[in-house]
């Protein structure tokens, strides 16, 4: 999977570039794997850490983590802009890796030193001392460094990995497709290690040691990344593609009163820079109001070589079509927001804490955050089966390279969130009923009795979540990567995390609204500190209803969507109905 091709690099020189492909993957995937071992090893158990070590209420801890996760994912858009405009992917990834290491180090210190966290709150204590402003400031400093690190790493790592393959050869294209699947596979395996071994050390051995381990993993991640420097294909930044979008919109508004040409593909200004890395796109009929940005007038000023003197007065048809690609993606992206709300169940750790977590008849209890491994295990098992068995089988039936279209894959994942939320509601009813009728001996402080229902009843909903992620999350990454113009790959990578960011804020808003509106209702607070006194099942049914509406919205958007590179109205619709 190694090819050599001339590309433009700094100083406009042409040099031979060797696409190392698979040979560069151990360093790139190794960096991301250990980064996830570090980040997930800390983040997976933060709900427990904040409620048991920092003595925060469940509502406050959940709200804080939603804001943190939302800000972390939103930062990827800023990271993508800085990457494409100023620093390039290599420097941005290097900075992000180091910032994440510092963030994990700061959080580990909050557990190691007693004056950096509140005094311990025992099971018999009815009132616990919360963190001081200084302690919260120090903790949030660590969160802030992790936001910087994730904002730099997440939008660039997939695009940087794809840069190592030659997109103009069949082997390179196959390498990119396989890279997406195996990328998620290795990351999920790393996450499984984090939520089992690391979480066990944190919960049952020592928080200082348990938080020091992810910090060491992150340090290894930094070393792995820089070790591969000599074999990487490092593409220099070409300026922000957001400027190109702004130019098309601004010029289209200025020329809104001009009459659209009858034959746009023949009449519109169509200069393409020689150094452009973007694919040549045919004219499309959607969003024709943007075509006016490419209507040449006498005062626009065109240079002898065919380029425009002022790109804020005239844009090329290719530039306009690239902007259309971005606009077409937005409705699909919006549908993925509620997918994340349905797939990431916020209260799963608290449900496990108030369930029987014993393994058989032994005294060993599985840490609450470790139950997330069942979602990851499902994804880890399904991805290689899908990549090696299901896709080739479907490819023979449909003739499509991926077996099914990308949007069909996303749609399956969105549909599974409906089933997942319904199953979660049914299981919560069983857990709550058994907690009231047959509670176990012992309580979790002032947070209620422990249900005699085995926490393994949470596995079906977690497995459905993992299956939904295998379809929808991987499908989203591939969709954004392939449907964005080539010079916007970092922006494309950030779109996935931007959807997660909005979902985090929506989740926090939804939890806050439900908590406040049901607090004095006849049915009682749905989300109290003691889940046995609440109606978490109602909350899951509410999420299921939202997911149903979201799935219907997605079907409409998928039917309307047009593939990048499809001409006019003669296109294949992604979400085909099956008769």
UniProtKB/TrEMBL annotation:
PANTHER family: OLIGOPEPTIDE TRANSPORTER-RELATED. Gene3D superfamilies: MFS general substrate transporter like domains (1.20.1250.20). It is found in: Membrane. One of its GO terms (cellular component) is membrane. This is Protein NRT1/ PTR FAMILY 2.11. Belongs to the major facilitator superfamily. Phosphate:H(+) symporter (TC 2.A.1.9) family. Belongs to the major facilitator superfamily. Proton-dependent oligopeptide transporter (POT/PTR) (TC 2.A.17) family. It comes from the Eukaryota. It is a multi-pass membrane protein. Its main location: membrane. One of its GO terms (molecular function) is transmembrane transporter activity. SUPFAM superfamilies: MFS general substrate transporter (SSF103473). Keywords: Membrane, Transmembrane, Transmembrane helix.
